[in-house]
Amino acid sequence: MSSAAAYFCIAAVITAIFATVIPAQAADPRGRASTEIAERMKTSREGYERLLAAYEEQLKIQIAEYARRKKLYQDGELAEVYVRMAVRDVVRTRTNITEIQRWILEDDLALTEAVARTAPPLGKGGYEDSALLVRYNGQTAWSVSDAGKIESFFLARFGRALPVSARGQTAAHDRMGFDHHNAMDVALYPDSEEGRAVMQYLKQSGIPFIAFRGKIAGSATGAHIHIGKPSLRLASPR
Known about the structure:
By secondary structure, the chain is α+β, with helices and mostly antiparallel strands. The protein has six helices and six strands, in the order αααββαβαβαββ.
């Protein structure tokens, strides 16, 4: 594939993605709304994966072009400015790839929580540990502004930063119509030493959470811990 062909492929995929995230209709019944949103998000995610593949193909072409120009420059047949231009192209595409990977992660987390909305609500202080989820309905008034306490605990316990994957509202939650402003997602497997320690800390502190052990409903979502109340306020997707 030529560089021009790769560019037009990327442009076409971007157009298709924006078409899929336009809301089909306002949500009405809770279960039906969750299903519709999940289907749109899956379609959106597939578009991101196609876009990622297109950028990766473009990167291969750009790296080869950089190598060609570098050789010509070393042989005295090309000005250095053209080598620097090739480097900028590679850096720009790698940045785009990183951004798309972040979008995919955000969509994965938001989609997991969308499907999990169908679980029956817990009573005050309720706790549930199932094959798929660990849920705790703590009653402490927690918000993202309190995240520093959890991060400090984790840093002191494990000597590294808490792996936060979504802090507050993200573009994925906007598209789904979920209020995630006072919630935080952490990329930890619930049954790992770190995951168990965080859940124990949250429970002892009365902080509500939902921990996902793995994939949900055939999506490509990964395990993580959602800290805060479930993202239950469903509005019209944006």
